[in-house]
Amino acid sequence: MTALLSRVFGPWVGRVDKLTLRADLVAGILGALLVLPQGFAFATLAGLPPEYGLYTAIVPCVIAALFGFGGIAAGAAGIAKLLFVLFAILAVASFLFGLIKKN
Residue 29: how many CB atoms within 10 A of its CB? Predict the structure, then answer.
């Protein structure tokens, strides 16, 4: 059974025991307490039904949990980090290539 799960989800499945499973469960519940209200709020701000916020809060976390992508930040915090990196890259590129005109 573990071999099949390792083949489908990755080699991290063999490292799961009662202690890590309990820690992951607690981390998931605490993360949901933070991400779900943010998802509802951002969906409402975008003029979408709150259900979309629910989907965007849950689906990336489930995918990351199943495939062992622990380093991926999902939810509103992950989106904020991606936007920050994007704007930082654009700011550096515009500075280096002189895209911003000085008065």
Answer: 9
